[in-house]
């Protein structure tokens, strides 16, 4: 299974033709599909906490370092994710509620042990610094939803026909998601009716991600809410 097979399936349904190449082609239709493919991958990365994209990041404290650069493939943190201390299971770092509170912390506001964290300026920052001998850990969602033909090299973007989408462990489901994603996005781009195509895509995405057991994002705007979605912030607001 690859981008080529998924794109060919979409092409047959869209224009009644089956191109033999896409990324090496200068045809208008082929160029459109290769561009849209990366939109589909980015959309799916945001759609759910795919277990294939979950990665553990570890930061060793030295008692002075406050900020640790986010991984180069960092897309976001999973829902309800915490920053924990390795080998300490009862209490981890606390999510800073807002920037004003963070300002007060760095200006001397007392902090409970082990402290607070915030994502700021491309870093995971801590106040107070992670103490020496302590390791902080968090899971994040990688933006590398594309796998090269060797089956191991992960990428953020499609750039060859032999690349494959991998948000699920089921190769056929990945191909179907890419095919349906290409279909609705191409028709939407052409100002054609695409509501049914979008619905088919989102139903499949909900089914596949539901089997994956990752949390789901509540869509905003004119997109429907997945039947098995979870709130991004499960607690009461304003408390």
Show the helix and strand layout:
Elements: H1 3-15, H2 28-47, E1 54-60, E2 67-69, E3 74-76, E4 83-85, E5 88-95, H3 99-106, E6 116-120, E7 123-127, E8 135-142, E9 146-147, E10 154-155, E11 164-165, H4 171-189, H5 195-212
Parallel strand pairs: 5-6
Antiparallel strand pairs: 1-8, 2-7, 3-8, 4-5, 4-8, 6-7, 9-10, 9-11
Helix pairs in contact: 1-4, 2-4, 4-5
List low-pLDDT spans: 218-239
Strand content: 15-25%
Give the integer mean of the pLDDT values. 88
Dominant shape: elongated
Structural class: alpha+beta
Bin the helical content.
Answer: 25-40%
Biggest sheet: strands, sense, closure? 8 strands, mixed
Number of DSSP-assigned strands = 11
Alpha-carbon distance between the termini? 49 Å
Order of helices and strands: HHEEEEEHEEEEEEHH
- How many H/I helices? 5
Question: Rounded to an integer, what's the Rg over CA atoms?
Answer: 21 Å
Count of the domains: 2
Query: Assembly type of the shown chains?
Result: single chain
Walk me through the structure.
- It is a single chain.
- With 239 residues, this protein is an alpha+beta fold.
- The chain folds into two domains: 3-50 and 145-212; 53-142, no CATH class.
- 33% of the residues lie in helices and 20% in strands.
- It is built from five helices and eleven strands, in the order ααβββββαββββββαα.
- The protein has helices at 3-15, 28-47, 99-106, 171-189, 195-212, and strands spanning 54-60, 67-69, 74-76, 83-85, 88-95, 116-120, 123-127, 135-142, 146-147, 154-155, 164-165.
- Strands 1, 2, 3, 4, 5, 6, 7 and 8 form an eight-stranded mixed β-sheet that branches. Strands 10-9-11 form a three-stranded antiparallel β-sheet.
- Strand 6 (116-120) and strand 7 (123-127) form a beta hairpin.
- Helix 1 (3-15) crosses helix 4, helix 2 (28-47) crosses helix 4 and helix 4 (171-189) packs antiparallel against helix 5.
